Amino acid sequence: MTAPIIGTIAEKGAPILDVAGLRVAYRDRNGLRTVVHDIDFEVRAGEVVALVGESGSGKSSTAQALIGLLPEGGLLQQGTVRLNGENIAGWPQRRLDGIRGSVISLVPQDPGNSLNPVRTIGEQVAEILTVHGRASGAAARVKAVELLERVGLSQPELRARQYPHELSGGMRQRVLIAIAIALKPSLIIADEPTSALDVTVQRHILDLIDDLRREYGTAVLLVTHDLGIAADRSDRLIVLQHGRIQEQGHTADILRNPQSSYTRRLLADAPSLNARPKRLPPHASVSAASADDIIVVDRLVQDFGTGSDGSFRAVDDVSFRVRRGSTHAIVGESGSGKTTTIRIVSAFQRPTSGQVVIDGLDLSSLRGETLRLLRKKIQLVYQNPYGSLDPRQTIERIVEEPLLNFERASRRERLAKVAATLDRVRLPADILQRRPHALSGGQRQRVAIARALVLDPQILVLDEAVSALDVTVQAQILDLLDELQRELELTYLFVSHDLAVVRQIADTVSVLNGGRLVETGGVEDVFSIPKSPYTRELIDAVPGKRFPRATDPTLVSAG
After folding, report:
1. Does 214 lie in the same domain as 125?
2. pLDDT tens per residue across span 381-405
3. At residue 347, does pLDDT exceed 80?
4. For the packed helices 121-131 and 137-150, what is the interaxial angle rounded to 10 degrees?
5. Which of 196, 355, 395, 547 is deepest in the core (most CB within 10 A)?
6. Do 143 and 246 have their domain in common?
7. Burial tier of 162 (Cβ tally within 10 Å: 0-12, 13-18, 19+)
8. What pTM was estimated for this model as a whole?
9. Which residues lie below 8 Å from residue 193, measured CB to CB, with a gap of 6+?
């Protein structure tokens, strides 16, 4: 039954994928809830079409519906999905299995959950060849190694024998791409293929997809919330909001002249598309050492034992200073030493050597109650607002908890402080008795910030605090942080892999690579004239350079 599609090429000029009137719904206790409303679009051979929008816009539901992989309760209500001219909407799963991988392939978002942990990499790549009858046995294993080499994995023979947990995130994503291209499909759906990857790994993965598209003439439907990636990598854009297309057209046309107010807001909020460097407050000069340095890190070293008397140096001779009331960013790829550094600065672990001074207090000299009280002065806001809040507690209890640990106050006083702090982060009083699951991602992160602020700290350590948020929510949280810093004279230590965000929020920056400090200084100095080749590589990998946009105040108000 699949013969009319498998191995065929669409008529000259005809689209590889033609979607018309697509409607997707989910069953819940109240019946059917429609999440994608009558959308139409097409993708042609060798073309990259980007599907963009915030969480809940219907991007992933659309992609999953096209390939017949909607989660439980999902239903393709109506519409046609023509693949190389044949309508595959409503095909049974067994029939769809015949074209998945051979004609249409999916590169999923999370490589950690998409590979079988108990099978080798080589077995999993070879499986698609075997299932579709293209190779078997030794021939499939040889072809699997060739595919791993084709997607740029070093030592492909070794990788084929390894298990997923033995590979980095970027390596695992390359494996998924190897599986996706194994049978040279007509269409690849790439669903947030780089969202969990460092900026340089992200660029390499996107370059790889681009190379394969040019080599094979494959069409690509790129699902992403990153407007910078969409700007750099797509020929056409489709902007979704609440399951409806707001506009679609050539990427350059939409970026230069967006017609929808929603699109204008998305573009205005995207840090990678807008040059909005932060201006230093008068008291936060980035020049030489000063008595007003609230954080001083001097020649920090952290070794970890690896067994058999071996050791691994995670932080190697790192020094930097942070002026009171300013924002200092620490950037670098996974394994660069960022997390270890902030854990030491936050007094959660003691370094092997070196010195950390917080507001004049040497952390190495603090013990017991003195050390405990220091932690009132420095508070953390974590990356994931979905994982950092106790799902069993009410919002009131979550924000109140630090007060129970550090302050002797009556319940009335505590609850008054909780209410005042939630108001400061612009949350309504009616959320006090709700639990985290009833809040949006942006609301949850505001709760996390309130929990950190309730003790009136001087320093906030923000560990990837906006990386899990949609671009518009991210912009709102960054604005809130800027407002709080000015009102409360807070000092921020901001850890991020997103250099576009760093340029927007930070005054000074330290760049780490392999545990060593490769560059430090004022943000504009480092970004404009980077001295280190590694820093230049990081900056060059930031997406959004294809169509740079200056900030336009009318874009913000238009949204």
Report:
1. yes
2. 987 777 788 989 999 999 999 998 8
3. yes
4. 120
5. 395
6. yes
7. middle
8. 0.80
9. 107, 108, 109, 173, 176, 177, 205, 206, 209, 222
